[in-house]
Amino acid sequence: PAAVFDVEFKDNKTLSFTQTEGENKGYSDTMPFTAEEIADHVYMVHWQENAGIAVIHVQNWNTLEVWTNIYVPGQPGIHMKGRMRL
Description:
This protein has strands at residues 4-9, 14-21, 28-32, 34-39, 42-48, 54-60, 65-71, 78-83. It is an all-beta fold. It has one domain. The chain has a 5-stranded antiparallel sheet with strand order 4-5-6-7-8, with no helix packed on it. The radius of gyration is 12 Å and the shape is globular. The model has no long low-confidence stretch (mean pLDDT 94).
């Protein structure tokens, strides 16, 4: 599934996002997140949305690549790879 999100990491504890392209265009939420550096400038970032959706990113800031895993309760996982734009 093709999807584009604007994500803002507000204070190293909270993120907000809005889906700007894709099936759920306009969907937005704000919630706490956890990030851990797993290699030099590579982070595993995860959060749970207020709707119960779990999201796990691996963000490579060296190459600006992101791998996203989304788990909606009762549905198969969604796995995507894309590029980050600053």
